[in-house]
User: Fold these one by one.
Assistant:
Number 1:
Amino acid sequence: MPELVVGFDLDMTLIDSRPGIQAVWDLLAAETGVPIDSELVVSRLGPPLTWEMANWFPPEQVDAMVARYREHYPEHAISGSLPLPGVAESLAAIRALRGRTMVVSAKYTPSVRLHLEHLGLDVDEPVGDLHGAEKGSALREHRATVFVGDHTADIDGAHAAGAVAVSVATGPFSADELRAYGADVVLNDLTEFPAWLDEYVLEQRLEALMRRLSSYDKMVVAFSGGADSAFLLAAAARAIGPANVIAATAVSPSLPSAELEPAARFADSLGVRHVTPHTHEMEREGYQANSGARCYFCKAELIETLQPIADEFGITAIATGTNADDAIAGFRPGIRAAHERGALTPLKDARLTKTQIRTASRSWGLETSDKPAAACLSSRIAYGIRITPNLLVRVDRAEQAVRSRLTSYGVENVRVRDLGDSASIEIDAALLDRVDQQELVDAVVAAGFTTAQVDPRGFRSGSMNERLPEPEKYRDL
């Protein structure tokens, strides 16, 4: 799946530059004595400046007047321009999807940059001095798949690049005119863009996922029971049929006791064969030592345990539920171990984020769509403390005790972090001021810890990494 790159026109797409532009034209009129209808000028923004200048000055003066216009522009046009409604939300929506942004405008490139900087619009690549189909060259160069504009010329640019032409009716053309000209999508303004983009990108990424899965005859899915691997399992069953998919849930002391039965039930609901091989990561010194590289040894054990199962059924594909967010989440030695052993990552390859996976899961009616993240129990043990089955049992018992006391609050995330004799309790930040924290501390102490305290920052995925010095992460790899 290619990276998401979205291009935007500038004037009357991202910004209302009419007041500033009109001021510059009025200034030119005053300097030259030429009667310029500046209101008419700003009513038809879009084409290159030289085209408009030719309407008011003879050919031999056009270049000089363009140069003069550009001299006045920074001082008189920038501060008067305002972002159009929905701009900040649209740029944020692209970032949330791990995408990049660019602006392709007929405006002078330095002026494009000045506008973006003045308004604090975070755009990766500003490009100017291109109009109409010429914009397609920049869009192709940066592999833009969507181009948003307010002018018919922007539609030409999008189509020249093979991009989706999204038009907003905030410029000189009405929605009907843009639609009739050939826009693929027409929106009233950018406030409608984030919702459209989310739906469009999710559809594209799901199609990419299903194409990838359909390229395999059979597949083993490393199925932890969590939302990501559950969605992958359901997608594989849809793509190649449940009879050709095996769900493998590894059983070991690091699997929370409450996870196995729901995993079996979920696989059965899909009609998928469910196997529960025992893994022996506890026998690996690198795992027990619990340095920052612990997850490497765990994932290595998992894939090496699943390989004989795949071989037994004549299956060449073993897939994990690694998603696009996991791939950029910093130090992830487990992903490296799986990759080295040939495991597939279809969700990551389709660029599906955690949020998208949950959205798609809800649309498919999967019961795991809102299931809280549930990393293995070993992730609760502070690095450097040697992992033993007894420590894992203590953590599991403590977490169940905390969760049972928060059921009425609709708790989603609970972690009891083992720091040695003491424990750090992490719950959803929104609940911190609503619950009896001492009751939670007492429950954790009763589960076997000497002392405990509730973390005032609330639940944070991977918070143990905050305690690990950078050089320590790579020790034992």
Number 2:
Amino acid sequence: MPTPAELREQLIRNFNDAPRERFVRAPRYDSETASLTKGTAAKKLGAGFDIVAPGMMSCPYHLHHAEEEMFIVLQGEGTLRVAGELVPIKAGDVITIPPGPEYPHHIINTSDAPLHYLSISTQAAPEICEYPDSGKVGAFAPGLRLLQRREAGLDYWDGEP
């Protein structure tokens, strides 16, 4: 039988205490992220705590073919770019993004203060992501991370005997 301390380690993370990593790629990207499920007993859910600097983004505009996502805005305000539209978001908003090409998305901090939100996803694998602004396609599975431009694809029979 696990002890309360062991159960806490396996099942609980505090987003205020979780170690964060900063990602900066000028001129558009500046965010801090903490994984809330890495090292836990979670098998099908992923969660993170994100802080996006004023005027910045945390990731490129993209869509998932398998993974479903949810974002919970904890503090601040910004803009959800989704399906080609700009939608204002603020603290208290819960955003749901189903998989599929209908909802390419990303969050932009269009305010003067940091934007804090939780990112939750189904961690479906294998996963195919598309990036409409750059024309990239990514294939992700355990042991595989492949990114290329859509137009760089090969013929199905290329290299086959």
